[in-house]
Amino acid sequence: MSLSIQGKTAIVTGAARGIGFAIAHHLAERGANVVFTDGDEAALDNVMSDYGSDNDHVLQFAGDISEKLMMANLLSATLDAFDRVDILVNAHRFVKGSDPLDTDPGVLEQMLRQNMIAGLRLSQMVAKRMIRQAEDQTDLVQAGAIVNVSTLAAARPVPAMLGYSIACAAQEQATRGLALALAPHLIRVNGVRFSSVMSYELKCALKEDPQMREQIVAGTPLGRIASADEIAETVHYLASEGARFVTGQIVTVDGGRSLADPVTARDL
């Protein structure tokens, strides 16, 4: 089983912090050309400063990819730098609370646009490029791999985060639908659903409520909070040819939490 991604080109959204950054950094460390993209330009500049200006295997792209023109610019910048795209990781997440009995339509629309629609449109755009790249190749194992990142809120409702929960569930259904649509083109589409992971959002929550750490650990059968790198390792597997017969799957990485404890906003 080959997990090599050496020489592959990957686009990772939400790459300025937390899990998105961990994924992008992990893929770059394993020899992939990686485009780090995020809407927060200042945060992106900060993390990219460690790579140096002479690193020709990484590229940063700042912009709101929920805008169609910005998506096109992202793909163009990727092709200009690396000539192709082999892997797309939709790791961008926008988390905001919402009243379950009086959800502001604007908030719900924002949740859907940022957490599902943007990733779906980018996946469609990138998939078309992957198909063109594969037209003149024979004996392909895969023409490309797309991985979507969501949370346990997709499967178990979080009333205080109703809009976000709906968006995560929609994203996972889009993962399954695209997997079927793109399978004839040898493009695989999978998802990673996480909880009990030290995400950027969880770090912020723990600063406000340090006791939350004990609650999470107590409710997690494996007895700890995972690092963002552990999500990156799962994404790496799904993006590699080692997972060449895996598509349309949502891999849950939560230390068993979904088996044992109700989901709350702290799991997002």
How would you characterize this protein structure?
The chain has a single domain (9-267), classed as NAD(P)-binding Rossmann-like Domain (Rossmann fold), CATH 3.40.50.720. 44% of the residues lie in helices and 15% in strands. The chain has helices spanning 18-29, 41-48, 68-82, 105-134, 162-182, 200-208, 212-218, 228-239, 257-260, and strands at residues 9-13, 33-38, 58-62, 87-90, 144-151, 187-194, 250-253. The protein has a seven-stranded parallel β-sheet, sandwiched between helices. Strand 1 (9-13), helix 1 (18-29) and strand 2 form a beta-alpha-beta unit. Helix 1 crosses helix 8, helix 3 packs parallel to helix 4 and helix 4 packs parallel to helix 5 (162-182). The longest helix is centred in the middle third of the chain and has 30 residues, at 105-134. The protein is globular. The model has no long low-confidence stretch (mean pLDDT 92).
